[in-house]
Amino acid sequence: DLAQRLERMQRVLMAMDQHRNQLESEKQSQLEEIATCERKLKDLTDPELTDLDIELLLSLPGGPEKMGLLLLGTEERWRRARDGVISRWEEFQKAKEDVESARQVQIRLRDMQAVHEEQRRVLDQVRRKHGESMEARAALARRDRMIRGLEARVREAAERKGADAEWGSA
């Protein structure tokens, strides 16, 4: 049973491989046919005329009219190509302006980042100085309270000494 299943699977794989090869072959032949058709279409729409072709065309009945039509077609293709080049040049100039504008924005952004960094450093320095001044102010307030306290003790001591002196003389 297992051997039969393996054999069937092998046949299916071989058939799939054969079908894939056949499809690849068809694809290749269709690609070649498409390339041939594209060359023929290009020859019909954009003929490359030699001096002999022009002389032959002009010698045929209705040749000068056909030659005029060919020249008009060539001129129209040239105009389209020129217009395409002009529009691409305009797009390029606009893109160039956009790139320059973006470059200016990047420069301004870098400048703003540098200014922001400088502001941050200055702010940190101001905060540090403010902290130092607050500590100095607190120390000054403590010393001021200590001095007032000492002055009050000195007055009290002087008042007591004066009172003791009055008691001692009485």
Question: Which terms would index this structure?
Answer:
170 residues, mainly alpha, 94% helix, 0% strand, elongated
Largest sheet: none
Q: Distance N terminus to C terminus?
A: 140 Å
- pLDDT averaged residue by residue: 87
- Give the total of beta strands: 0
pLDDT < 50 runs, ≥5 residues: none
**What's the Cα radius of gyration?**
51 Å
Q: Total number of helical segments?
A: 3
Helix content: over 70%
Find the structural class using helix and strand composition: mainly alpha
Q: How large a portion of the residues is in β-strands, by DSSP E? A: under 5%
Order of helices and strands: HHH
Shape estimate: elongated
Structure description:
94% of the residues lie in helices and 0% in strands. The protein has 170 residues and is an all-alpha fold. The longest helix has 107 residues, at 63-169. The mean pLDDT is 87.
At a glance:
The protein is mainly α and 170 residues long.
How is this fold's topology laid out?
Layout: H1 2-45, H2 51-59, H3 63-169
Helix pairs in contact: 2-3
